[in-house]
Amino acid sequence: MTIEEPRVRHPEKVNRPDNPIQRKPDWLRVKAPTSREYAETRDLMRGLKLHTVCEEAACPNIGECWKKKHATFMILGAICTRACAFCNVATGKPLNLDPHEPEKVAEAVGNLNLEHVVITSVDRDDLPDGGADHFARTILNIRKTAPATTIEILTPDFMRKPGAVEHVAKARPDVFNHNLETVPRLYPSIRPGARYFTSLALLQRVKEVDPTIFTKSGIMVGLGETKEEVGQVMDDLRAADVDFLTIGQYLAPTPKHAPVDRFVTPDEFESYATLARGKGFLMVSSSPLTRSSYHAGDDFRKLRAAREAKLAGTRPAAE
Fold it and tell me: Which structural domain, as residue segments, surrounds residue 208?
């Protein structure tokens, strides 16, 4: 009998030289997860054979979020067809889709009694629709199982998948998120399989299909971008009528990933937040530990209130 060697998580990065891992400043240090709720959430995901981006992407906020039983489900399997330089999700040839995954996600949402759920996925360039129908089915199943739960999706770019964006948007998620990740100058080294203007066009197309859907996008800083470039990304997103912007610190998952250029200070993050609000975003989350789905439920309530206040010509209530 032959013993199968363990699968390499990032085969495209194995032969790269190691980058130095810098010591994190105090504002980026978090405690290891130990709560009972964390263990219960983990066991539920294992029992239903579901994946979460919280684990796959090594999110630093997993302890805080899972203690509150907030989890971001990752559908379409756990192996991505792309190899972004910043991402810890495994890459390679994906396995076949689990046809019952949309129902399992809906079951987990009901078991956790979630008010707001975030659904993301790996890139599936191997599928004719990029996984769009799987997203739509997941949304529809959650609506049946947990009709009071608001739904946020974080999708891939569906590059060269005609009709995919429209199909997902017509399933009417409450929030449609797609991250630009970084400034266009850094795409060849950080996000080589993607195209900046393809991602922008996706966000704009969602609003064309259904203007009532909130759109959201996020970037990482600390990769070598300039403040002027970040400002231009903000302008591009506002031109696409994006409602919500997240900005967080890039952290290298392993020495084989893109190195951290620098740690952006909390004051700089606040400066970015002020700049973004001035450009007209309904909602901005900008801090070292900000991630796409961090505090997503609370942020959704604020986002909805901000739109209602804007339509009424008033300011949202102070917190």
Answer: 32-312
